Amino acid sequence: MKLDSKIPEGPLAEKWSKYKANQKLVNPANKRKLDIIVVGTGLAGASAAASFGEMGFNVKNFTIQDSPRRAHSIAAQGGINAAKNYPNDGDSVHRLFYDTVKGGDYRAREANVHRLAEVSNDIIDQCVAQGVPFAREYGGLLDNRSFGGAQVSRTFYAKGQTGQQLLIGAYQALMRQVNAGTVNLYTRTEIVDIVMVDGKARGVIARDLVTGEFQRHFGHAVVLATGGYGNTFFLSTNAMGSNGSAAIKAYQKGALFANPCFAQIHPTCIPVHGEFQSKLTLMSESLRNDGRIWVPKKKEDVDAIRAGKLKPKDIKEEDRDYYLERRYPAFGNLVPRDVASRAAKERCDAGFGVGATGLAVYLDFKSAIERLGEDAIRARYGNLFQMYEKIVDDNPYETPMMIYPAIHYTMGGIWVDYELQTTIPGLFAAGEANFSDHGANRLGASALMQGLADGYFVLPYTIQNYLADDISTPRMTGEEKEFVEAEKTAKDKFAKLLAIKGNRSVDSIHKELGLVMWDFVGMARTKEGLETAIEKIAAIKKEFYSNVRIPGSSEGMNVELEKASRLADFIEIGDLMARDALNREESCGGHFREEFQTEEGEAKRQDDKFAYAACWQYQGEEKAPELIKEDLTFEVVKVAQRNYK
Amino acid sequence: MENNINLTLKVWRQNGPKDKGRFETYKLEKVSTDSSFLEMMDILNEQLVNEGSEPVAFDHDCREGICGMCSLYINGRPHGPDDDVTTCQLHMRKFKDGETITIEPWRSAGFPVIKDLIVNRSAFDQIIAAGGYTSVSTGGVPDANAIPIPKDDADEAMDAASCIGCGACVATCKNGSAMLFVSAKVSHLALLPQGKVEAARRAKNMVAKMDELGFGNCTNTGACEVECPKSVSISNIARLNREFLKAKFQD
Ligand SMILES: Cc1cc2nc3c(=O)[nH]c(=O)nc-3n(C[C@H](O)[C@H](O)[C@H](O)COP(=O)(O)OP(=O)(O)OC[C@H]3O[C@@H](n4cnc5c(N)ncnc54)[C@H](O)[C@@H]3O)c2cc1C
Ligand code: SF4
Ligand code: FES
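^ inputs. structure came back:
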């Protein structure tokens, strides 16, 4: 299979305008005849569904939650980037583009990233028009803050609840279309398969999570905006329901899964503290604007702290190791996430970690409070501090927070071309579900930007280029044999899970998978470790299909059954992640292979061998997937070792 | 400090909307006080699955107090005994060893039970669909800094907009009124120039939808504000009433 990424000809900065000027359009009368299925109501899904509805298409929009507003995007805290250059600090579309490619360690496609930077400003305008209450200065204009991996302030925010406010904006736009009758909303409904007719995506099989009934839905095109697969690790900062099932269904139908091993470990999360733990809570990256990260310099201080004999504030300034400021003087506490995470691991592995487990470092606001006063810090981060205090029972205004890295975001995902179309005609992927813009590492505040870019400003154009050739395809009824067969296959899969009647709960097996992922496919990976992981995951798969216990039946609501079907897919993803990580014999971005590092312990890329997106093609049950490469060429960016020193 | 406590749980079980429902009693041992309330529920469910019985169904997703999905009436209070938090942010250190905890779903005409502790809150989506937005489509909008907005207005709008749509205000209200929820949205948008344009019409349409869906009237008991995990202020209701009167005046 030869991949065509369909990047338009011409100079980088003109590609998108040229594309728009030359693409095919669908006229208003024909739009009414076309149905689009959008799976997901996060930033990507809700913005796409609302925009398609406004344009006059018939939209069916699905979510597993009880309301579109609950999609995981709601939890994003810190902010959203745009190249507005309001603070006049030297920002531009080019710089945002450049920072994103560099931040992604040169493993993203230039053309896509440039388009992202181009539309970023439109997003902010759109959100303000919707009534998103971004933070403002006393003069009434919008305020910005800085995020990791950038030397300008380009991040717009709404307190520590930016994702919430952006999603509510998109949700309200969506509900306006629901009211207008252009969008049909299906809540508590899970897509369990994609229906293919004559090689094209023509619909989905859905399962009503309240009644357990299966449904067949036709669409001229299908958009997957189902989010990331970080929950493969069981413990992550993602919401409990975040899952990779739709991506796996697409993969099994022939779409390619690109760079599965590119997963982001976020440096500032509340550390794990017990076996009962169900999720990890993120403390936003924005805290690194004012918080300083440190561990004690002396082992005896570490021991005294762990024994409860000393408190962090008892450690004298000269006995603290502000290791990020020490190692990376230019960026200090604001180095990109992958760099900050590995640095924390390095200190903890060397025995300087604090907290009961030794797997934690301090994030200290003492100097910021002295400089700005407690009120200023409260205004900036009040809700995060409150969240921390409720979980840990410690007051971060008085004592430093304890943090540790945790899995947070997945850069990898369904392979898409410039039009966000997968290798299956008519199947598109947007938001975190695709692999498109972040290469091997995503910069803070760029996921929200990408989700909304895809949904508001990219798909509404590119999908027309596809649908323009489809205006004479009549609606299907769902009685066609492809739909009937797909429904039967899906039903059988659920029946098979229920029939296992083993001895172990879904969560107990998921936790086991998560531990394997964290130990061998986590922050530091090795050849041997990854080979072990693949074996262990195969064993977990066997255990799952022979020993999982799901009480109840497929009728009515059955939460264990939902979780089991998602775990089945996480197991497939875990295997893909390990294989991809094994194949990629280099370190780049979030992917760190211990064999490939510089003398100072920084990631070492192998550009001559691995300057490609690794795309995996499904070959059938129990068969190893095949690797297809999309070579990356850089025409504008100068590829270099990332340097934040 | 972490401790382990033993608990007796009285949990509402209801197998579907038509079932009458009943309380079941369960014992849990050695629950860490560092675990969250929902992690305690996970432990209960693990125990139930291991016994071969059906686990308790409850809504949750983000588990960090922002998605609004979790609910639960705990010992007679929506979102439990702690202040300004959602159920998912409630921790077991708020409970004592040997305590009996009663766990029920939101009980309100507007929110029918789906199963066990899960209720249907789609009425809130319908109220938003009736007018909780600015009528702008994608593209062709002015520059974000074209209209300066006083910081105080933006901040106040933000406070109103922080409503997570959980429904605790309705669940706690003896009239089952959704006024706090509706007023938060009306206020959020009315405070900003972009939303001001349609403020009166929005108030009228959202209130009409709320009435149509069977939510009760507001008699200013103030219970909603006390139980709101996001401290949405009851002063928003006054603003809603003003916008509503304006709309009436215009008719
Ligand atoms: C705690 C946290 C903080 C973050 N903070 C930031 C930040 O400050 N800035 C930033 O840029 N990014 C941030 N991110 C990342 C960002 O929030 C996400 O990458 C982004 O919101 C993903 O949006 P999405 O629309 O792609 O998917 P999601 O918001 O995850 O939405 C997925 C949707 O798909 C639906 N779905 C999934 N599977 C199915 C199925 N099979 N059938 C039907 N529906 C399905 C779900 O119901 C949901 O509606 C943060 C992430 C986390 C976890
Ligand atoms: S007003 Fe408060 S209690 Fe009511 S839905 Fe919003 S957040 Fe929940
Ligand atoms: S689970 Fe999201 S608010 Fe509680």
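The first helix of chain A runs from residue 15 to 22. The domain at 481-623 of chain A is CATH 1.20.58.100 (Methane Monooxygenase Hydroxylase; Chain G, domain 1).
thumbs up if we can close this ticket
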